[in-house]
Specification:
Strands 1-3-2-4-6-5 form a 6-stranded mixed beta sheet, sandwiched between helices. The chain has 7 helices and 6 strands; from the N terminus they run αββααβαβααββα. By secondary structure, the chain is α/β, with parallel strands linked by helices. The longest helix is centred in the last third of the chain and has 24 residues, at 198-221. Helix 1 runs antiparallel to helix 4 (130-148). The protein has a single domain (29-221), classed as Uracil-DNA glycosylase-like domain (Uracil-DNA Glycosylase, subunit E), CATH 3.40.470. The chain is globular. The protein starts with 28 loop residues before the first helix and ends with a helix. Residues 1-11 and 13-23 have low confidence and may be disordered. The structure holds iron/sulfur cluster (SF4). Residues 46, 49-52, 54-55, 61, 118-120, 132, 135-136, 139 line the site of iron/sulfur cluster (SF4).
Length: 225
């Protein structure tokens, strides 16, 4: 039974944690507040959205979360079962894997804004349909990207790679920075695939190692960001 008005357990868009020892150069407070309120307004619209058929099968929508001024945006495919229940992105097994690859690095989830191509879980975790992808990205994802204005976008999985880069194979898109419309992208497989494609686990690790190198360069080039 869809419940379009149930709020997630916590605010999906988190302001920057100023108590954390961050290595990033802070934006002026007014800019950070502006981005936060734009993202909160979008999240509020997403939670009650009924613009595509996926609204009927969701428990709650999953707008995304992270720093409004994150240097990197991560875009996956769609919420899974746990995300659909909690309203938070990447909290299931794929999220655990994300935490795992960040272990031992200077980066935490606070360095990212994490979201998906579609914000509502497709029934049985099927691949989102073209009309669902087009509706959700044009109404919400494009605006989220504009609001966060990340220096780099990491695309996870073929749905995100195809939609954002027009490339149908993740293998073709990975291991390099690709520029489109003034934005920089990296691509990898969705972490969930490593459960049934053991051969891809090493490739995903390699791609996250590249992400870490690119992030370090970004920070060096921009005075710690
Ligand atoms: S997937 Fe996107 S467009 Fe479709 S109902 Fe959910 S928020 Fe709206």
């Amino acid at each position: 039974m869809p419940n379009m008005l149930v709020a997630p357990r916590r605010l999906s868009v988190q302001p920057r944690d100023r108590s954390r020892k961050s290595q990033s150069k802070p934006l002026p407070r007014s800019k950070e507040r502006f981005r936060l309120s734009a993202l909160e307004a979008l999240a509020a619209r997403i939670r009650v959205c009924i613009k595509c058929p996926l609204h009927a099968s969701r428990t709650v929508a999953v707008p995304g979360e992270g720093r409004p001024t994150a240097p990197v945006m991560i875009i996956g495919e769609a919420p899974g079962k746990k995300e659909d229940q909690t309203g938070q992105p990447f909290v299931g097994s794929a999220g655990k894997y994300l935490d795992h690859v960040l272990e031992g690095t200077p980066f935490t989830r606070d360095d990212f804004f994490i979201t998906n191509i579609v914000k509502c879980r497709p029934p049985g975790n099927r691949t989102p349909k073209a009309v669902e992808i087009d509706t959700c990205t044009s109404d919400y994802l494009s605006e989220q990207i504009r609001a966060v204005n990340p220096k780099l976008i990491l695309l996870l999985g073929s749905v995100a790679v195809k939609k954002m880069l027009g490339i149908s194979s993740v293998d073709e898109a990975r291991e390099k920075i690709i520029e489109r419309d003034g934005r920089k992208y990296l691509a990898s497989y969705h972490p969930a695939v490593r459960f049934y494609r053991e051969d891809l686990a090493q490739k995903i690790k390699k791609d996250f190692a590249l992400l870490r190198r690119v992030l370090r360069k970004l920070r060096t080039a921009n005075g710690r960001e």
